[in-house]
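S1.2 Input.
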Amino acid sequence: MFRARAFMVGVAVLVAGSASRADVIDDWNEQWLDTVRVVGGPPCPIARNGAIMFTAIYDAVNSIDPKHEPYLDFVPVPGPAVKRAAVAAAAHKVLSTLYPQRAAVYDAQLQQHLAALNNSRAKFNGISVGIAAAEQILAARSDDRTDSEPVYIYEDRPGAYRPTPPDFTEPPFNPGWGTTKPWTMATGSEFRPTGPFGFRRMDRLLRAPRYARQFNEVKRLGERNSPHRTAEQTEIAWFWANDRDGTFKPPGHLLHITQVVANDQGLNLDQKAHLFALVSIAMADAGLVAWDMKYATNIDLWRPVTAIREANTDDNPRTEMDPDWLPLMEFSPPFPAYTSGHATFGAAHAAIMRNWFGTDDITFTVGTDEPIVSNVTRTFHSFTEAGRENGVSRVYLGVHFRVDADIGFSSGTLLGNYVFRNHLRPLTCRADLNKDGVVNAKDITIYTNAFFAGDPIADMNRDGNIDYTDYQIYVNLYFADCTPGQ
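S1.3 Output.
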């Protein structure tokens, strides 16, 4: 572990000093969840917009006090800056840009946060840093192709996705989402599984004994008035649902869990900014992983309600048609079944949480927005337990086969592990300029000389200019603990 060994008189004043109230991130997360409840919509755009907000918050906080790699880049810090002001300004800028119809709500929350801070240069510097971080990520995502809505062409063959009850008219959501600009991956197909049970052809899949076993499982457990589904399975089905507008939707549920665990574990503002950013970019890419499989392969799999009502067409003697079968939930989400978005989001979230805390064995109790079980809480003893239950809940709800959940969990886990290993990592000890393994007066002398000489090594934010911002970044690094090579 590197630690500063020397103190240079006068340098310390460059380090922004303010007592940060950690709940500013909670407040904006709650504001974001309220926005999702009011605006609604499908899960992928929700995950995308949440990631924009939390990467803006993270890059703002991390620019003031660099501890990890930025998501995009460090933004200019004109002097001592209050992190709470930066968080509020970043979140406000993102949300008011993405949801201008709710600008008055965001304005009120911003004013509430800023009014609690003494007017000072550091406060206004924090505001400018937050706005700059927000503008940076908004610009980067402005051409991410998420506004593309290609026409979906239905296939007239057994196994292919088609509109579902009750109205049979809902067009499929976001058929091009798997081809949108990734957050961490090279392409949306990077973690694509081979296909249900390894099949790439629909006819072979439908004839498989494993398909029949899972068909009969969801037919038995997911039926609306099933006598086979236990009371706890019914509770699990509804607890994780959050499919209706008016709820915080699946990505929001996972951000709620993130907040609960972060507070249970006593995380500070910097730690929350880092954790929420990792969770949100992993979930944003989880949408690409799941939607790539839903739409970009040879198998756009029908939902159980269609499979069961049309089982006479699947050429599998182990399945039996029930033309009146209905799932527990009154509708099936309007997109193909394979793979499960719930399972993929939940697995990516669980992987980030396991990696971030360094253990899977953390107990937490959380609630849900699903109105049918709005008074229910569930306790989990690991992140994996919660993620697995999230996936299988869709079988009990009658809207997925188990393979949708199992493969979604597998690909989401691979994604989450990849994100944690490769993004927002702890900074190598950039303050150790002579690379002797110790940060001391020799390094500050090297940096000071480079700064006044205009040497490119002094350009800490790599913006092509060597100025006060670079000096402050170096000083923050100088006084920070940092571990090499991570």
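S1.4 Remarks. The first strand starts at residue 364 and ends at 366.
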